[in-house]
Amino acid sequence: MITGERMAAVDENAAALGVPRKQLMESSGHAVARAVRDVAEPGASVTIVAGRGNNGGDAFVAVRFLEAYDVTTLLLGRGDRIGTAIARENWDALQQADYDTREVADSSEFSLPASDIVVDAMLGTGISGELREPAATAADAINDADATVVSVDVPSGFDAEAGEHADTGVVADHVVTFHDTKPGLENLKAEITVADIGIPAAAERFVGPGDVTLARPDGREGRPYVIGGGPYTGAPALAAQAALRASAELAFVAAPETVSREIQGYSEDLIVQPYESEVLTPDVAEDLLETAQQYDNAVVLGPGLGTDEDTLAAAKQFLESFTGRVVVDADALEVVPDLETEATLICTPNRGELARMGGPDTDDLAAVAAEIEAFAAELGHVVLAKGGTDVITDGERTRLSRSGTVGMKVGGTGDTLAGIVAALLEHADPLEAAAAAAHVNGLAGERLAATEGHGFLASELLEEIPAVLWGKSDV
Ligand SMILES: NC(=O)C1=CN([C@@H]2O[C@H](COP(=O)(O)OP(=O)(O)OC[C@H]3O[C@@H](n4cnc5c(N)ncnc54)[C@H](O)[C@@H]3O)[C@@H](O)[C@H]2O)[C@@H](O)CC1
Ligand SMILES: [K+]
């Protein structure tokens, strides 16, 4: 099962792997033609009702595979208003090769020719809300017609994110859906065919530009709360600054007063909240919990906290009472395996931390991705295992991020990663936020490596984050 949103991400990843969308459209169109051939003998009359998106584009391709049929193609709108280049190219090809095509300017002009088959290619996964005109009129006519209706990808009017049908939508007899079934299709009376359109498995498995698009912030949102610092001061500052670079509105750092000035000294952009103690203690954790619950911040727990016994007890206590989202990093990770918590945790262990938590102990994380997935399932939390290839899993879904360079072994890159995860949590679900963050952090390193070789610093990653997130996502 795949949502329309995720499908678009996978499709973008496929393009980055060298399989562009136009190629997928060719496969989709071929699959639609096969479905028509399955329900009608050669010579049968086929009317294609196409919209101006890629759903229509799939049907334009199908026309070329249906030479043995009597095909008429109706486009809702004008050809020069087709929304995507690849759909327009396929429409133009039909014009140049003299296929029977007609443009329908508005609903008053719409009339459905009597035909054996109607191919419904008005709207696919790009729909929002009830059908607008002329699609609504066309849907009524299709539903009233005596033809077998084959819908492309989803029946037009069906929302593939929510799995809901618009009141005005097409009622299909057959649906040819692509790559994987979509939420809610199984509740329809239609016969569903899932067509393989040649998307490489790697486009789902490896984090790519599509995953970044999916998690990309479209504004400033979120106020991550970094609980860190004590024995170390750089780590919490890096995490908080990375969150700001990745779209957080504000970034708070709760730290011992003995080091709070030092942390503030690294950056005037942070809001540092000192507490009276040299390290995090259970008493302090209780106060911090109140603040975190009140503001519903995403929390980053761990950077620079140290392993004082009191600190670990405090981290455990915090996590057991908190009910929000926490990125757990560094020293705080070791309390996770014994926790009882309602919080949503995203654990970001490196190799050693993963092993100490009870997960696999290896340099080659990709080779043990299935074990890490099982480990995350057992924990009941998202695990982002950091290595040459990062493994990101929620125990059911697993993604691998190959971005990054050896220069990222430098201290502090895990802290920037934790901050990016916290920021993206405002825009994406925990697994998607973690996967995109891992990719973004690695790409930021790759940008630096282009000029600095292996000699760059974690603090320099910070400035690269915006370009990776909002600029061209391929370096
Ligand atoms: N990986 C993929 O995502 C692939 C997608 N393909 C096809 O592309 C489709 C998605 O294409 P698009 O994203 O271009 O979107 P659609 O073709 O679903 O439609 C987008 C168009 O519909 C209009 N629209 C949106 N809501 C409307 C409403 N309520 N009433 C009337 N018009 C409305 C929009 O303004 C836009 O012009 C898929 O369903 C599938 O058929 C395939 O070509 C191959 C691969
Ligand atoms: K459709």
UniProtKB/TrEMBL annotation:
Residues 226-472 form the YjeF C-terminal domain. (6S)-NADPHX binds at residues 54-58, 124-130, 153, 235, 304, 415. AMP binds at G414. Keywords: ATP-binding, Isomerase, Lyase, Metal-binding, Multifunctional enzyme, NAD, NADP, Nucleotide-binding, Potassium. InterPro entries: Carbohydrate_kinase_pred_CS (IPR017953), CARKD (IPR000631), Nnr (IPR030677), Ribokinase-like (IPR029056), YjeF_N_dom (IPR004443), YjeF_N_dom_sf (IPR036652). In the C-terminal section; belongs to the NnrD/CARKD family. Belongs to the NnrE/AIBP family. Catalyzes the epimerization of the S- and R-forms of NAD(P)HX, a damaged form of NAD(P)H that is a result of enzymatic or heat-dependent hydration. This is a prerequisite for the S-specific NAD(P)H-hydrate dehydratase to allow the repair of both epimers of NAD(P)HX. Catalyzes the dehydration of the S-form of NAD(P)HX at the expense of ADP, which is converted to AMP. Together with NAD(P)HX epimerase, which catalyzes the epimerization of the S- and R-forms, the enzyme allows the repair of both epimers of NAD(P)HX, a damaged form of NAD(P)H that is a result of enzymatic or heat-dependent hydration. This is Bifunctional NAD(P)H-hydrate repair enzyme. The lineage of its organism: Archaea, Methanobacteriati, Methanobacteriota, Stenosarchaea group, Halobacteria.
